[in-house]
Design goal:
single chain; mainly alpha
């Protein structure tokens, strides 16, 4: 015969058995790694600006380089380790977007370049692209209509 718990006993039992939250540690790691990624991006932007690129061109090149770095680190199996350590600190910056595109492609490369890599590349990032582009079109139309 099983012993039945009262609500209070059950809550106490669950609190005792549940793993302790490591939220403070996770927040610090996410902030540190996300901040470091942003510092690298700002450094690249500053170098490009010092080389004579205009503000817009330097920004575009910085995004391109950061996406390449994220994709490259994913390809050599380093970015996943960074993600395990930093959590959202590695997912939120643009490098995390590159990781979300390259990871499924790497996982399914054994199925071939067309049905594996090509078909799975936008498996995770595809909905983000679709809704992001759709939202930007709607906002652009609203901006155009409100401007006049």
């Amino acid at each position: 015969m099983q012993k039945l718990f009262t609500n209070k006993e059950y809550v106490d039992y669950v609190e005792k058995k549940a793993p302790k939250s490591k939220m403070a540690r996770n927040v610090i790691r996410a902030f540190a790694v996300g901040g470091l990624i942003c510092v690298v991006g700002q450094f690249i932007n500053n170098v490009l600006t010092a080389q004579g690129f205009g503000k817009d061109m330097a920004g575009n090149l910085t995004v391109l380089i950061m996406v390449f770095i994220g994709a490259f680190l994913t390809g050599i199996n380093v970015y996943d380790d960074i993600g395990k350590f930093a959590g959202a600190g590695s997912i939120v910056p643009i490098t995390g977007f590159a990781n979300s595109i390259v990871s499924p492609a790497m996982e399914f490369k054994s199925e071939g370049y067309i049905t594996g890599v090509g078909a799975r590349m936008f498996f995770i990032a595809g909905p983000v692209l679709v809704y992001g582009i759709s939202a930007s079109v709607v906002v652009g139309i609203l901006h155009y209509l409100i401007k006049f």
